[in-house]
Amino acid sequence: MTIATVPARSAAPPANYEAALAELETLVASMEGGQLPLEGLLEGYRRGTELLQFCRARLEAVEQQVKILEDGQLKPWPNP
User: Fold this and answer.
1) pTM of the complete model
2) Of 10, 18, 39, 44, which is most buried with the most CB atoms under 10 A?
């Protein structure tokens, strides 16, 4: 039986939102696999929180830009 490990990743912030989200999805999948040792889970959790904070910050920045474009009022997105 082989024990999985958290894929190596740098502590540097991701290049963009999409890269952060892709890394977070990969990380969650490896953690949900149930084969990581305790240290791997801890490392994955730490990196996951960093990625989540990055994604939230990017989404908040975009929301602020939309508010500015809409004269200070955030309007609902139209449904296609």
Assistant:
1) 0.71
2) 44
